[in-house]
Amino acid sequence: MVSSPGSRFVIDCLSIMFIDLLLAGDNALVIAMAVRALPPRQRRTGIVLGAASAVLLRIILTIVATELLGMQWIKLLGGAFVIWIAVKVLADTASPPAEASAPGHLLRVIWLIAAADLTMSADNVLAVAGASRGSVPLIVLGLGMSIPLVMFSSNLLVLLMDRYPWTVYLGAALLGKVGAEMMITDPFILKRLHPSQASFYAAESLAMAGILAAGRILAELPKRRPGPA
């Protein structure tokens, strides 16, 4: 039986949405950790604007994916950026409420979400680009439909982190694993160093331990500074 063009479009669109959601766990974690430092009233705004900005950038990246994803240094720099975000989030989590809600912090969180999602989306981009077969309307509709479910996942993770603060450190460690995996699978690293499976595990473990240690040190610095005389 030959399917109609309309039904084929719907199936392809649902396929793109499913692929994006299946691969978007790390992105939801970034959103949740970034907005946790915001006051409760600003969290929903941060999630909505951050997720929307991230998807918009991902749509643009997907359209031009074939030229970008094979370039050296892209994943290396992106992985380093994800690790930096994990450290920054741990430091922000320990900030006093007055400092955490400073003007401009919401915009910074939105930028962090969009930039991190863009650097972490290589797998999503490749899968979506293949499923769309080059159709820009399919890319836009499929990724756009995934926004509400990604926002729901992010809200759920934020509530979990509020109730169980130790999960913030677990999230930061997971981001360290993601960042290290991105860096060690960069074409430049693979071509020059030919890392073994043991090297993958070592890099991920080192990144996770380093993030937790650096985040703890940065969080303690304000407490050690002498107060005003």
Q: Overall 3D geometry?
A: globular
Tell me, rounded to a whole number, the average pLDDT.
Answer: 76
Order of helices and strands: HHHHHHHHHHHHH
The main pleated sheet reads as:
none
* Distance between the first and last residues' Cα: 82 Å
Quantity of strands, as a count: 0
What report would you give on this structure?
- The protein has 229 residues and is an all-alpha fold.
- It has one domain (5-224).
- Helix content is 82%, strand content 0%.
- It has 13 helices and no strands.
- It has helices at 5-22, 25-35, 40-63, 65-68, 74-93, 97-100, 105-119, 122-132, 136-145, 147-163, 166-184, 187-193, 197-224.
- α1 (5-22) packs antiparallel against α8.
- The longest helix has 28 residues, at 197-224.
- The termini are far apart.
Question: What's the layout of helices and strands?
Answer:
Elements lengths: L4 H18 L2 H11 L4 H24 L1 H4 L5 H20 L3 H4 L4 H15 L2 H11 L3 H10 L1 H17 L2 H19 L2 H7 L3 H28 L5
TL;DR of this structure?
By secondary structure, the chain is mainly alpha-helical. The protein has helices spanning 5-22, 25-35, 40-63, 65-68, 74-93, 97-100, 105-119, 122-132, 136-145, 147-163, 166-184, 187-193, 197-224. It has 13 helices and no strands.
Q: What are the main properties of this structure?
A:
globular; 82% helix; single chain; mainly alpha; 13 helices
